[in-house]
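seq/struct pair 1
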Amino acid sequence: MTADGTSTAEGATNTKYVVEEQNMALVGAIGRPRRVLDVGCGVGLNGEAAKKRGAHVTGIEIVPASIDRAKERLDEVLAIDVTSDEAVTKGLAGRSFDLLLFADMLEHVADPIAVIRRLLPYLEDGGHVIVSLPNVAAWTVRLGLLAGKFVYTQSGILDDSHLRFFTRETGRQMLERAGLEVLRLEQNPMLVRAAKDVVLSAQRAVAPGGTPDPESLRKSLPYKLYQGLVRPVEDVVAARAPELLSFQNVYVARKPPKARKLSLTVGMLTMNEEDSIEAMMGEIRRVAPDAKILCVDSSTDRTPEIAARLGARVLRQLPPRGHGPAMELLMYSAAAESDLLIYLDCDFTYPADYIPVLRRIVEEEGVDVVNCARTRTRPAAMPLPNYLANRSFAALAHVMHGIPTCDVHSGMRAYRSSMMRAFDFDGEGDALPIDTLLFPAKCGYRVVEMPIDYQERVGQSKLRKIAGTVWTMIRLVNALPVGQRGSSRYELR
């Protein structure tokens, strides 16, 4: 497409009206990355969503009018021809990213695999790639073919500037051939959108000069009502038959992580741990002398002062907001500065001697989460009601989600940081460990569950049993639409 928006396709003479809107499925999969490269960023709506989550977003765009608008939304916009090795090398020299976005861009190039491979050197190990591709097998196209029609249009699946066409499966194959590991697939539905020609014709009719603002539809009240009331229903319906009912297939993939030494943060949530913090930090230093220690603290005693004096980074959360918000802060603070987080309680219920074991599993085996299960058998240090409650919650997770865990509330886990940044975990309320176990397991990441000794605690328990039970049920239900039921990559040891 030329800079003034006219089509270069043979025989096309009309001005192309491009509707600018966020790609909802793609934006929903962004997570909380640190540095994003938005390839073919358009006016920057998708990259803007990543920026609002704290990322530094660099856009690539070649249409001058789009560049001007994108610069108002993104941190920077580069005019780079991604089909040229020389242009990419010159434009991205010295840069690295943990997320690449390709929102309806790869179908416009003759060799999409070459474009992906050209940009992968600038993606860090384990970094993610999110790709949106129009679905040429959508029901509207199939009906046209039954009638003997395959007519190019000025926008949509059969856009006259598309050089390549993809089904759900051929899109996956293309990404795998480019060297990516495809983790999960999402979709934007092709239901209400089938009436787009009628809507756009109406917009042209009422627009001054017959040329609507490309963003006017997105800003309109009917569109906002559609997104809030109708779109959630469409998503449920389209998920039943995505090959047929998807307008766009959205792929979440990553650069496969390599076996290597990872920088480590050992994290703890501390609240009045004065009796144990010094000894606990000594144990951590003994088994992981190179690790950073991070405490999210809500204490009223001397715990934070002791931890800081011994070299820990202490983030104060006062007044206390509960386990979920504290864990959310811990996870994303660790993910911003280290490759790996190992979390454990500060009360000696989980032995620090397991830290090197968890670290080795992630570093050498490419595992994303290690869940330390206390409840394969009942530990002597755990009261019977607590044991039965934990096993009941695990059984519910198995029935509802197909994940064969026996401990959804473990207080010791290892998390690969690139995996954590791929999700936007919401810590509001209790029972966040439900999400941080089930989401990765259902979304294609490799999870290992191993038994661990559970010991008598030092100090008082901070467990909120009623609130924890209520939030456990809420999170088990809320996790139902995430990813796919079951996981072939959940390993019990």
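seq/struct pair 2
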Amino acid sequence: RLGTEAALKYFETLTELPDEPITVEWVDGGFKVIE
């Protein structure tokens, strides 16, 4: 549930779709991109 919400929040900030897969996690009420 929180992973899906983190992904949605991240996609709201994008101006272009990424070419590679991304991983995000929910932290402190927001998202963090994992590299």
